Amino acid sequence: MLSYILDRLKSSIVVLFVVSIITFFVLMIIPGNPAQLILGTDATPEAIAELHAAMGLDRPLYQQYLSWLLELFKLDMGKSYVYGESVTVLIARSIPVTFSISIFAMVMAVFVAFLFGMLSAIKKNSITDYFSRSIMQLGAAIPSFWIGMVLIVYFGVKYKILPVSGFIPIEQSFTGFMRSIFLPSLVLAIGEVGTLLRIVRSSMLNSLKQDYMDMAKVKGLNAGKIYIKYALRGALTAPLTIIGMQLAKLAGGTVVVETIFALPGLGRLVLTAVEHRDIVLLQGLVMFITSIVVIITLIVDIFVMFLNPRIKSFHQGE
Amino acid sequence: MRKNISLILGIIFVFIITAVWVLSFVYMPYNPNEMNISNRFLKPDFDSKHIFGTDNFGRDILSRIMYGSRNVLLVALVSVSLGTLIGILLGALAAMLKGLAETIIMRIMDGLMAFPGILLAMMLVAVLERGIQGSIAAISIFMVPIFSRLVYSMILDTENLLYIKAAKSYGSSKGQIFFRHYIPAMLPRLITQFSSSIGSAVMIETSLSFLGLGIQPPFASWGLMLSESRQFFLLHPYLAVAPGIAIIITVLGFNLMGDGLNDILINRGSNDE
After folding, report:
1. CB contact under 8 A, B111 and A259
2. CB–CB of B213 and A274 under 8 A?
3. What is the pTM of this model?
4. How many domains is chain B partitioned into structurally?
5. Residue A49 buriedness (CB in 10 A; 0-12 / 13-18 / 19+)
6. ipTM
7. Using CA atoms, how far apart are residues B212 and B103, in angstroms rounded to an integer?
8. Domain A93-265 = CATH 1.10.3720.10
9. Where are the domains of chain A?
10. Which of A225, B26, B191, B218 is most deeply packed, by most CB within 10 A?
11. Which carries the bigger pLDDT value, residue B36 or residue B87?
12. Containing domain of residue B134, as a range?
């Protein structure tokens, strides 16, 4: 069991190392001189050369990479030239926004996916099943920016029920916070619910076929108990892995929603960094987001291992 | 056998979009970039000259949707094809050469897979030029790890089967085994994955265009049309209807077709997945 955890830890570190190489070298080939970008077009060549050297850009690439990696360990990701602030500070300030909408979106998606996934597996080929399978397909096909625009018009402008832009921190007002994240989270949830529903349904169908289900029925347990305690428990592994992957995906995949709802989150930072070719900011953001992804995946894998004794014993046997 | 509704619907939607695409080379009601300020914001009307209405510059929305289908489908087809070819090549090399090649290739793929959502595509767009080529390159690279991992695991699953061992024992080369045995064995899954990947490529392309990182104005692209309609959307909500439906039909079509093919080629009629 410990060997499994160590194994996964090791491969996570390798992945992050590979990501750091990809990120650093891909972004280093961006055309244009960063010093020129910072100083603007009126700067003298001498001033540009001076800043170029001050930023360490005249050193060989591998040296730049190593010093960048070293700074990364000290949580110093450099200074964004668009904002003129430390990248670490910018990221720290954006985390609450992105994490709030991602987590709330997943709560909604999990609720709907489990409810309809279970119902549709229990009553396969019923109306509920066809309805669930339509959600599955439509959720994956409706672009989030489109549904976002529609929701803004109906909830925000026509009926004025909810705010259509901006973020209210939870410390300031809880209702304000919930109102400001509801629509963006709903849009994200619509995008994720289909995939999750599909997995819940197929795991549940598989679980219902197992011998322990017949056993439970023979024992005369009531239906609710059978489905929740036996079938659902046997069907948790795959959905949990997917929930982890989706949470991880949302850490960096909320750009579109943050743009529509004008939320100051990580996605907005990514977009600004890409638009202005702010390499330092983009490098920092990409490393931060991929680290989150790798950490969430690792935690979910370990969690799933505890739920599924087969993985545990398989690795003990090695 | 039970009727395969997914496949039928998928083929119908894909056919509609393909027909629009092909037709756009033969006939479009108007020049998609022709502005006509006196005809601004005409509402959709099936009896008028502008069935889907006109936008803020008086451009015909139907023509722009038709023209946009070229960009969307071009980017999606080329990028998924490139991603598939490179992915198959890398996955096969890793699985068949083993050793150092396997480690290096598969670790790079793991690294690429750690980039969530459209982050990788956005990062690549920052490096490349915005526009059709940039989108194609970004989406191709996005697709590579998906296909290489699929091919890699399928080869590992098949390599110990008797017919592969037999082929090895009578001296078939790696290339022969790959083309004669692995490719046919992998084809059903590759076709299914290809179809669904077109759906996700369309989604990424339209998202990039929506964010202003894809196809640039004045050229028409569905994502761009939605993004341009944002500031007029409150007064003229019809502006977002046509591009939205076009995207939904396209993505839904390729996804349903992928699912339907999956049912007949791999799961053989079971709708458990």
Report:
1. no
2. yes
3. 0.88
4. 1
5. middle
6. 0.84
7. 37
8. yes
9. 93-265
10. B191
11. B87
12. 5-26+59-268
